[in-house]
Write a structure and sequence with these properties.
The complex is a heterodimer of chains A (504) and B (354). Chain A is an alpha/beta fold. Chain A folds into three domains: 3-238, Rossmann fold (3-Layer(aba) Sandwich), CATH 3.40.50; 246-334 and 421-504, Rossmann fold, CATH 3.40.50; 343-419, no CATH class. Chain A is 33% helix and 25% strand. Chain A has 17 helices and 20 strands. In chain A, helix 14 (405-417) packs parallel to helix 15 (435-450). By secondary structure, chain B is mainly α. Chain B has a single domain (2-353), classed as ABC transporter involved in vitamin B12 uptake, BtuC, CATH 1.10.3470. Chain B contains 15 helices and no strands. In chain B, 54% of the residues are buried. The mean pLDDT of chain B is 91. Classes of the chains: A alpha/beta (504), B mainly alpha (354). The A-B interface holds A 305, 307, 326-332, 337, 339, 344-351, 355, 358-360, 362-363, 367, 370-373, 375, 399 and B 10, 17, 221-223, 226-227, 229-230, 233-234, 236-244. Bound molecules: adenosine-5'-triphosphate and magnesium ion.
């Protein structure tokens, strides 16, 4: 059987890094092939080469056994290769259909758009691959999970036989992930090939036929999913066992460190997002906030950080009312924040790693005279952080946009934890991190708690909440419907509450 | 919206990082001259003669150098003014108006605050010019931070208002006796000395150098500059880091206007010694283009200003010596901007050469 894709002896270097080092990688027809590896292992680069975004320094690519030259995405598309990036490339104001056909518009006579055919074609693909999308809705109104389906539709519409999905599940809720998997299985049944990148071993094992593990730009090996397990994969990736279990010791003092009372605010679209939310966060505890995405989590975090105007309620830090304070004051009072949307809130892509590490502390830690930034200190600090958090970067002066996704996240985590904050707001803190780094960040969160910090953990990943939290709060339609100690509840109960089952 | 605009401008004109960016910028300028040579040749002039006389006119004598730097000085200010706004994500295209208001402020201070020793009068006049420019740019800044009014529209409109308002002032209330629409002469104690007679080059060039150095330091090393750049590059992340977006809009616009106003003040104090209606051939507008050619950094802007100054001063000599019409200077300027705007093209050309 010929391979759908063969990449032979691929090498790609950037100044200071060898991202791909003599990689041999092949994928069979109608196979779901997993690509695993630590942050910065070279997964995205390898796939970008296949999709024509980067030119390899050396090596060959064979599609259906024939050597091809892919010098841009248009070549890739012509060869039936499609890619869904972690960053969607949709036009927000256009409808789903318009996005899907963009660049390939069917016409009646070469000029006028063939609306009917557009709708018919796209609706048909939706049905065929079980991709549930309202195809006439404008894209900006759709949740992330649905936007991703639009990206997949787009690739299929352009005739993709091989579909590359780069960390598709990192932005999805568990339910959406399940739907994506159904669609992927449908694609396979239709004879399509899928390359699937994820850091979640369980997902990779569940969906893939074979799995290739990369490490520092090299192939460690390719294994059959049926013949391996999480333990072996983790060991192939990091070379040691990974521990996700932590001791729990909740202990609430007299006064909660963070007290939220009756919070009310509007969403970006002007509809009520928080409706009288009450929550107490104690010192020395990790309080997990579980909920289906879009139930007010984003607004909750923004309200605590002072980034969103409240229409009611109060925020108290250590008994002190901070409802009307600026974000700056809250940061200085010791509220740290790991934002859920890395590119939007957490980093400045065109700043260097150093400049990103300074962000938020430029007025205290990194100045001696209150006027200029102490770059010598910043440099020292950056070097330490790069070592402590094992951030893979050529140096502190490298623009952060050139780091792999997981390494960008490490920069954010390093920056926020280094402030030694009494309150940590961690929204999806391990999104995009490999297993080793996930373990590291979780360990750090526990360490923070053990040193007396209150940690508010907002995560779409129930496993994460379960692994770390002392108490779990369930958020539903803008308010907290239940708070439970983890050892007095179970996943079923929380799942039910998340779906609004606690109201009767 | 204006974030997307400024981001696009940055992507196109920001050059690459460090040395590579510089190389591309220089290569673009060289290619513009090569294409310009082709234009000359096709229209029947000798490119060699034209360029030689232009270069020797601009740099070949102390008179030429003086004229070149004189032409360059105001653009140094206006280009840096523009880029300070752009760094914060603001498209301040009303530099011309802030420049004129600065010039007017300085004129009034120079004329009417009489009887001061020059050590006080010169800095005071400069200061009034800067404040006038800053106040003028604060109007769109407030409109933006309060009411979300887009600065491209408001700054441009206010630029026209400034042109007409200053014309009115020198036609009516502050008109000097005579036929020309101009103000009285500023007092001698407010003048910047000419440093290379018989050219008009004045001490303003030193002020321009200081502004270049100071703005580089400001943007790269100070907290405010850092916050300003963060705001320009990713306002949401800046906000999350405790940086107030509204405050940064005000700060960067005020600084931008102050530098433009300073440019206007220097032009009055060093060259015309009074406000003459229409004295600026559009220095503010030139500043936008020059900042882009300079790769969006102050030092680059300085050298790009000198280049544009040289094209102007050398161009006049060339016209006199070879009969090539002065329009070629306009064509060259346009070509330079065009090729600098096409870094990808330049990169591809460079690669082929290797
Ligand atoms: N455009 C670029 N310029 C310079 N270096 C780059 C560039 N793109 C990637 N790299 C580097 O190449 C290496 C591999 O990056 P890649 O994005 O493939 O990692 P990854 O395996 O996808 O990691 P992650 O799981 O974190 O997404 C990293 O060290 C990264 O910093
Ligand atoms: Mg990646």
């Amino acid at each position: 059987m010929t391979s759908a894709i063969q990449m032979v002896d691929i090498t790609k270097t950037f100044p200071g890094v060898t991202a791909n080092d003599n990689i041999d990688f092949s994928v069979d027809k109608a196979e779901i092939h997993g690509l695993l590896g630590e942050n910065g292992a070279g997964k995205s680069v390898l796939m970008s080469i296949l999709y024509g975004l980067y030119k390899p320094d050396s090596g060959d690519i064979l599609v259906d056994g024939e050597k091809v030259d892919i010098s841009g995405p248009s070549d890739a598309m012509r060869l039936g290769i499609g890619m869904v990036h972690q960053h969607f490339m949709l036009v927000p104001s256009l409808t789903v259909v318009e996005n899907v056909i963009l660049g390939r518009e069917p016409t009646v006579n070469g000029v006028t758009l063939d609306m009917e055919r557009m709708l018919r074609d796209v609706a048909e693909s939706c049905k065929r691959y079980k991709l549930d999308v309202d195809i006439e809705a404008p894209v900006y109104q759709l949740p992330v999970g649905v936007q991703q389906r639009v990206e997949i539709l787009k690739a299929l519409y352009r005739g993709a036989d091989v579909l590359i999905l780069d960390e598709p599940t990192s932005v999805l809720t568990p339910g959406e992930t399940e739907e994506l998997f159904n669609a992927v299985r449908e694609l396979k049944a239709d004879g399509k090939t899928v390359i699937f990148i994820s850091h979640k071993l369980r997902e990779v094992l569940a969906i893939c036929d074979r799995i290739t593990v990369l490490k520092r730009g090299k192939v460690v090996g390719t294994v059959l999913a049926a013949e391996t397990g999480e333990g072996q994969l983790a060991e192939m990736m990091v070379g040691r066992k990974i521990v996700y279990e932590f001791t729990k010791e909740a202990e609430c003092g007299l006064e909660p460190v963070l007290r939220l009372e009756g919070l009310e605010c509007l969403s970006d679209r002007g509809i009520p997002a928080l409706r009288g939310l009450d929550l107490d966060l104690c010192g020395s505890e990790i309080l997990g906030v579980a909920g289906v995405e879009g139930n007010g989590q984003t607004e909750l975090v923004e309200a605590v950080m002072g980034l969103r105007e409240l229409t009611g309620g109060s925020v108290k830090l250590d008994g002190q009312d901070i409802t009307d304070t600026q974000p700056k004051t809250r940061i200085q009072m010791g509220v740290s924040h790991i934002p859920e949307d890395r590119h939007k809130r957490a980093i400045v892509p065109d700043f260097s790693v150093l400049e990103n590490l300074v962000l938020g502390s430029q007025r205290d830690r990194f100045t001696r005279n209150g006027v200029s930034i102490d770059f010598a200190e910043a440099k020292r600090f950056s070097t330490d952080m790069i070592n402590d958090y094992q951030i893979a970067t050529p140096g502190p002066e490298t623009l952060i946009r050139y780091l792999s996704g997981g390494n960008q996240q490490r920069v954010v985590v390093a920056r926020e934890f280094s402030r030694d904050p009494p309150v940590v707001i961690a929204a999806q803190p391990t999104r995009g991190l490999d297993v080793g780094a996930t373990e590291y960040v979780r360990r750090k969160l526990v360490e923070m708690r053990d040193h007396g910090a209150g940690v508010l953990l907002i995560s779409a990943d129930l496993d994460e909440i379960w692994a770390l939290s002392d108490r779990v709060a369930v958020i539903y339609e803008g308010s907290i419907v239940a708070v439970k100690a983890v050892d007095e509840t179970d996943v079923q109960e929380i799942g039910l509450l998340m779906a609004g089952g606690g109201n009767e | 919206m204006s974030e997307r605009l400024t981001a696009a401008v940055r992507r196109v004109f920001g050059g690459g990082d460090g040395l590579q960016g510089l190389m591309i910028q220089v290569a673009a300028i060289l290619i513009a001259f090569i294409v310009g040579a082709a234009v000359l040749a096709v229209t029947g002039y000798s490119p060699v003669d034209a360029y030689v006389s232009m270069a020797s006119g601009a740099f070949g004598s102390s008179y030429g150098v003086g004229q070149t730097l004189t032409q360059a000085t105001p653009i140094v200010f206006t280009s840096i003014a523009f880029l300070i706004g752009l760094k914060a994500g603001l498209f301040n295209i009303g530099i011309e108006g802030q420049f004129l208001m600065g010039a007017m402020g300085a004129t009034l201070a120079g004329v009417y605050l009489d009887g001061l020793p020059w050590v006080i009068h010169v800095p005071l006049t400069i200061l009034v010019g800067m404040i006038a420019g800053a106040l003028w740019s604060l109007i769109p800044a407030v409109l933006k931070s309060r009411f979300d009014a887009h600065e491209v529209i408001t700054t441009m409109m206010l630029s026209y208002v400034a042109t007409h308002f200053t014309s009115y002032l020198v036609n009516y209330p502050f008109k000097a006796p005579g036929w020309v629409a101009q103000s009285l002469k500023i007092s001698g104690s407010a003048e910047l000395p000419r440093i290379l007679p018989p050219t008009q080059l004045s001490a303003a060039i030193f002020v321009a150098v200081i502004v270049t150095v100071a703005s580089t330091y400001f943007l790269q090393k100070t907290i405010m500059g850092y916050e300003l750049r963060a705001t320009g590059l990713n306002p949401s992340a800046a906000e999350n880091a405790g940086i107030s977006i509204d405050r940064n809009i005000l700060v960067s616009m005020a600084l931008s206007g102050a530098v433009a106003g300073l440019g206007g003040a220097c032009e009055v104090m060093g060259i015309h010694r009074r406000f003459i209606q229409g004295f600026s051939p559009g220095y503010g507008w030139d500043g936008l283009a020059v900042a882009l050619v300079g790769g969006l950094n102050p030092v680059g802007s300085f050298f790009a200003s000198v280049l544009f100054g040289a094209l102007r001063s050398g161009g006049m000599i060339m016209t006199r010596a070879t009969g090539v019409p002065l329009d070629i200077v306009k064509i060259l300027q346009a070509l330079v901007i065009m090729f600098v705007a096409a870094p990808k093209l330049i990169r591809a050309l460079l690669r082929r050469e290797r």
